[in-house]
Amino acid sequence: xxxxxxxxxxxxxxxxxxxxxxxxxxxxxxxxxxxxxxxxxxxxxxxxxxxxxxxxxxxxxxxxxxxxxxxxxxxxxxxxxxxxxxxxxxxxxxxxxxxxxxxxxxxxxxxxxxxxxxxxxxxxxxxxxxxxxxxxxxxxxxxxxxxxxxxxxxxxxxxxxxx
Length: 163
Fold this sequence. Notes:
- The chain is α+β, with helices and mostly antiparallel strands.
- Helices cover about 40% and strands about 20% of the residues.
- It is built from five helices and five strands.
- The protein has a five-stranded mixed beta sheet with strand order 1-2-5-3-4.
- A hairpin with a 2-residue loop joins strand 1 and strand 2.
- Helix 3 packs parallel to helix 4.
- It is extended, with a radius of gyration of 25 Å.
- The relative contact order is 0.17.
């Protein structure tokens, strides 16, 4: 009986020392879907806020109940919006439903990109490392600086005249 206690104590010490030397496990991300089988995320950029839902489909993108080609007429904005799908090689695998408000078109496209990247990680957690490496999961916090009193703009002074 005493021998089993000693061996079990030694086993316990060995197990604790092995676990103390081991690297902590990486966090495990799980798939988050709603009742309709969609993944949802909110993206932000400047003053724009985008709500993005993705579901398996053919690659159809709807922004504020309009096709993406109508809402974002400039090709550069559509390219920015699709970047997470292109990086993840999922361009024609998901349908997107987006509602976006606030800011201008450039900020809205950036907000949709941010929300799409977050929704992709909710749908396929293994894509997180790829999207994080490209910087799509990081919220760009730069906003317009406010105008100060006694100034023409945020920092620009009125023109000085000596005479």
